[in-house]
Amino acid sequence: MKESSRTAPYVCFSCRKQFERNWDFNTNFKKCPECGETTVRYDHKFRVPKRTDDAQWKKVEFLRDHGFYFQRVYDQGDEGGLQYANYPKDLNEARDFVVKYQEFAITIE
Ligand SMILES: [Zn+2]
Predict the structure, then answer these.
(1) Is residue 2 part of a domain?
(2) How far is the CA of 33 from the centre of ligand 1 (A)?
(3) Which range of residues forms the domain containing residue 97?
(4) Which of 23, 43, 52, 98 has CB 3.0 to 4.6 Å from 70, enough for a Cys bridge?
(5) 1-41 residue pLDDT tens
């Protein structure tokens, strides 16, 4: 069987860009190819904001600082099952989000 290489978005907060790179299971961090700062691996669901969109980047940084890298977060569904929760649209929503979904926060090392 041919091994397919998996890629993941690595986010540079200095460049405000994401780089699709091979997913190295040994590290969640890679050097930014443009500025040399450390980039962090994000979930595929992450959509990089526009470079000039300060408000969105503040939200992303806030979420990151609280352990949210756009990994999946769940809600109790109406029929008892679990359903994916949506990530917050702005910083205000993010403040509630990190409290409500605290149990899903992760530490990336
Ligand atoms: Zn960079």
Answers:
(1) no
(2) 7
(3) 7-104
(4) 43
(5) 445 568 999 999 999 999 999 988 788 999 999 999 999 99
